[in-house]
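User: For my dataset I need records formatted as: sequence, then structure tokens, nothing else. Please produce one.
Assistant:
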Amino acid sequence: MSITCGIDWAEGHHDIALADEAGKLVAKLRIDDTLAGYQQLLDLLAEHGDTASQPVPVAIETNRGLLVAFLRQGGRPVYAINPMSAARYRDRHGVSRKKSDPGDALVLANILRTDRDMHRPLPDDSDLARSVAVLARAQQDAVWNRQQLSNQLRSLLREYYPAALEAVARWQNGLTRPEARAILAVVPTPGKAAKVTRPRLCTALKKAGRVRGIEAEAERWQKILQTPQARHPEVVEDAMGRQMLGLLRQFDAACRTVDDLADATEKAFRQHPDSEVMLSFPGLGVQLGARILAEIGDDRSRFADARGLKAYAGAAPITRASGKHHYVGRRRVKNNRLLNAGFLWSFSSLTASGGANAHYRRRRAHGDFHAAALRNLFNRMLGQLFHCLQTRTMFEEQVAFPHLLATAA
């Protein structure tokens, strides 16, 4: 008898339902989110025919967590069902719109019973690839968090301390520079900046790690900061300085977190065997390569062909046709992290690859906007990456863009 399992997970407990090949509820159980509860689940599955050679498939509405990791240890197929899909399946079995945790578990079990071929199990990625995914996503989240704090800090400085923004304007992402953060910690207000000495600024720059041009840089900062400017009343200015210092401590911690996670991501990524192939592509550095590896994994059976990978990334267009209506446009359901990395990759490849630049120019001449042309270039290079990873070959410019290179020449 074919058995399928559905798990409705929650923070403190999980509801389990087993359904037979006719859709009938065979067994149900509520377990705690503990190791003892996980063992109860394994015992229940074993009672109903779960073996190492023929494991019972499990459907659950998440793809992460200790429960999912515990279920995947024995090679059991685990299907992460989108909650919106589960809600649509629930409406198939009744019109009253009733809902309960045990009922949702049975719905998930029946999804695998009826439409198992329409859903994909979680990819069988290696432990190293999973670790790269954790680090790369954490580093990407840290970068986004740093940018948010940078915007808040910039907005606050614009209100009462525009000279500080003028001093960092010569640097790209100037507020993220350790020299800027060190000086702002010393002179948080225009009042203190008016009294600061050049040796004090030199000390701050040395503390930030600067080793060259310290005197000249301190002189530049002092000249800008001590230029007469409009100011708030002293009490208000000091209060805003306190606010800025609090925000600066958060921002400094975010900057150090980004750097630490970037180092850890690079170390893990370079240990992966796919890194050599990925780094052979123009415009694809360590951090972008790690982000792409984090989203596509190293399970070669995950995508049947390059078209599946392109659709997953949102690089391939989608067609909607009904009667006389025919529409071809960009995908809205996609892996947003992968598409974000793809835009950065495509943009950086314009200066690193003559063929990529020629492809982009051809798409712009064809009428595509900047974003559409980059997405089309990402679509092509993603197919090339899929081929190189499958065949373990390095990127070759003449093979990837033979016609475009000849036309450009």
